[in-house]
Amino acid sequence: MSGILRHRAALPCLVLLAAFAALPLLGLPDYWIYTTTIGFYYALLTASWSLLVGFVGRISFAQTAMAGLGAYSAVLLGQHLGLSIFSGLVAGVVLAALVGLAIGWLTLRLHGAYLGLTTIAFAEILRIAVTAEHGLTKGSLGLPAEALIPNGTRQNYYYLFLAVTVASLLVMAALLRSRVGLFFQAIREDEDGAASLGVRVTLWKTLAFAISSAFAGLAGGLYAHFIQLITPSMMSLQEMGFVLAMAVIGGFHNILFAALGGVGLQFLLELLREMGEWRLVVFGAVAIAMLRFAPNGVFGLLAGAFSSKRGDR
Amino acid sequence: MSLLAIFEQALNGLIISTLYALTALGLSIIFGVLRIVNFAHGEIYMLGGYVYYCAASVLGLPPVVAVASAVLVLMAAGALIERSLIRPVHEGKVDRPDEYAIMITFALSVFLLNFANSVFGPWPQRPAPLFRGRVEIGELIISGDRLAAAGAGVLLILTTVLVLRYTWLGKAVRAISQDRGAAEIFGVDVSRYSMLSFGIGTALAAAAGALIGPVFNVTPIMGVIPVIKAYIIVVLGGLGSIPGAIVGALILGQVESFATILIPDTSRALAYKDAYGLVVLVLILLVRPQGLFGKRERRA
Amino acid sequence: MSAQLKIEGLTKAFDGLVALEAIDLAVEAGELLGLIGPNGSGKTTLLNIVGGYYEASGGRVTFNGRRIDGKAPSSLARLGIGRSFQVTKVFKRLSVEQNLMVPGATDWSVSQARTRARARAILADLNLDSLAADRASSLSGGQAKLLEFGRIMMLSPELVLLDEPFGGVHPELKAFMYERIRDWNAGGVTVVLVSHDMGSIFDLCRRVVTLSYGQIIADGTPEEVRKDPAVLDAYLGDHHAA
Hints:
The complex is a heterotrimer. Chain A is mainly α. Helix content of chain A is about 75%, strand content about 0%. Chain A has a two-stranded antiparallel sheet. The N and C termini of chain A lie close together (about 10 Å). The mean pLDDT of chain A is about 90. The longest helix of chain B has about 30 residues, at about 5-35. Chain B starts with a helix and ends in a 13-residue tail after the last helix. Chains in contact: A-B, A-C. Chains A and B meet through helix 5, helix 11 and helix 13 of A and helix 3, helix 4, helix 9 and helix 12 of B.
């Protein structure tokens, strides 16, 4: 499936990329450019989350906490160690990856709801720590961060975020199409079976968490230097709920669908602002309906309809 | 710290533990019968608070009736949730049942929280409590509303335990918890009891929310932290174990009350209060996932 | 002794219940050995210990002179031990071909292209090549068992442990599976076959070991075991006898 899919998906992907690249040039207003840039933040989160949950089959509610970890460490390490923004970002990614590695390793023997609960616990401990250490992090008041692009326009940030998101998706896709992706899927389908065939289940489960957390940390770091003020709420379980719902609606078994869910829903939610808080209720309801009736998500449905029209399989 | 202050701390811890225990009991029953962790449990608790508020403050019904309404409304809601969202798991219609149940209840929590926020707004409500005034036992002063809430909580816990032990309903529920297949063969209507059990679970959470609402305020986010306490309790006690839930609640209540005192830097110690229980949760899950009284199961 | 697989004094107890008691078994390279015994005799437990899923309570297991008890299943697979499961563990949402690619991919020194070619050859050998792109969930029970065989073959194992491979398999397919097992064995692969299907044990195996209540009670040719009174007693006799 992997080889053929590359060619079939290449054209739609290029079209999508061209569309996103063209949006600001076609006169999309500044406010919407800003919104879509935030959308790319969510796209990175949903894609990296779906890698772990959809592909490897390891449930986690710690994604937004990892993003926050990346964000706070990028800013704080930058400030206190005098690092450049770039080095700070790298440090944030590395720290998130290491914490992800640790959590992945500690939770090796856990599955299902026990695993979910443990990740909730880790996420909340991190959030509480960030809030409590307000001497360092300014807690709920918010931690200011330097601008990533000095005097950057919203268009500048848009293209930077688009580039990073696309590059990250390409890296993730390359990984998932390689033999590592096969190992990930085998682990998801049947861990014992995979082990009996020589798959290093322990190694790949741990690395999957680290990789997913690293991308979340990257997203968080970039976000921090974009909006220039971060608060612990970015690490909350409510935020995690949004990421989950976005990924589910997009299609969480496919990183591109999940990413599109992220950016698409961020855009849609802004568009529906006059609906007030009810738009979030509808959002939740749609996520539930998707899980119940269309687990492949909106884009999964579209892709399925499209391929069956073309008469294959 | 004076002996009196310690006593007051312990009593406060005990009162709050009771309501956590009630919530945890509901979670335990749901897990026992349906083998799923209800990640929307906190929002059910919250809705219990809101139904109480609607019944007591908006409709002006007496507090006891208001609590009963919360219980009944959310019991029905729970049954509906089970029927529409959880049933497919047990009918084999779901590819990955564990993952599905976790995600759909989490999505449900997103839905319910925002629903409450939209209908009632984010500002806190303070409905009328079961009992106003103070109770004095010697030199000890306890607020009456807390005591009444805890008392009602204890009553509900006892009732539930007795029902589970001695009634036919209880026996059916325990049978399904032990062995779903065998229960079915012996003629237990597993689908109906699954629905009922989920409803009982949500009813208990709603009762806790309704009892605590007047004491601490009713807001859309009131369930977020308490449900995590409930998770800690059920995991500590052992998922699916009723006595475990009660013991776990007692332990957690005391840990939280006293950990705050033991750490010297009071402002930070208080800020980390919610984290102590979480650390306990992680330790239990890593070291002894079946908890104090649970059975060792490979997966949850 | 130059036995390929040596089990010495192996004991396994589960919370006080003794499943295996001081088992001594030597399997030579290239043997086709059947392991039989009534339910609860410890056959699957033995297989699970050799396969790395359980830890022994006592004793040891060596493979090609190297101690393997306590090693993880994935290490054992890489050492050359393959295993099939009573309830098939095919990767349901992966294609048939992908199922074979997984074990092949564990050898990083071989390119995916070469692994794919090997996989296709094995699929052809098993008459599954027309189903290569289909989801493994669409296979019949017997085909799934064949797929498990194929996956094990991708490992180029020296020793293969088969746990009830013929359960619910159509007779024609069973005959085909016999052929494959014999071919494997002729090529030098040691096969240990656990089965309740006496017909297949006696047809295929040249040596049969019988377990009862966690102990070996018979070890010989099929004819010898068939007539052994201890074996008959274990299967048919009074199970309350010590």
